[in-house]
Design brief:
Shape: rod-shaped
Distance between the termini: 98 Å
Order of helices and strands: HHHHH
Oligomer: single chain
Largest sheet: none
Helix content: over 70%
Strand content: under 5%
Radius of gyration: 36 Å
């Protein structure tokens, strides 16, 4: 009878060894994919952050481009006034001031505080400039020149 007792112990030891090997094999198969998934998740998070940064830069660039486009329109408007083409200048002024109003009201585009201030100052003179152009008042030329110089702050 004493000889039968050691046999079950060997059987338990073999079973435990088999279980340990099964668990080790399971973990060996589970750990690499888990690490790979974590690495990919980190890469996706970094890529999403970069996309957000690029989108913010795109918004700023578009706002800068719009400010430059508006300044060019103001330059063309000044040129027409200098040529005493006040009718053409008045039509151009309407488009210019409408563009400034759109840019000033765009929450994404007019984010810069200095730019908002310049746009507000330009818009505050809309009626004055439009009236001067309608009267063909030569003094409007100096006002437009000053506005052009001030508008340069919106493009920086």
């Amino acid at each position: 009878m004493n000889e039968e007792t050691p046999a079950p112990k060997r059987s338990h030891a073999g079973l435990i060894t088999a279980l340990v090997l099964i668990v080790a094999a399971f973990l060996a198969g589970l750990i690499p994919p888990t690490l790979r998934a974590r690495r990919i998740s980190d890469e996706v998070a970094r890529a999403q952050q970069r996309v957000e940064e690029l989108n913010a830069e795109l918004v700023r660039t578009r706002a800068d481009l719009e400010a430059l486009r508006l300044r060019a329109q103001l330059g063309d408007l000044m040129l027409e006034a200098e040529r005493n083409n006040f009718g053409n200048a008045a039509a151009m002024a309407t488009r210019f001031f409408d563009g400034v109003a759109r840019a000033a009201s765009d929450p994404a585009g007019g984010a810069a505080s200095q730019r908002r201030q310049v746009f507000a100052a330009v818009l505050a003179r809309r009626d004055e400039i439009s009236a001067d152009l309608a009267r063909a008042d030569a003094a409007v030329k100096q006002k437009l020149t000053r506005m052009y110089i001030d508008f340069g702050a919106a493009t920086q």
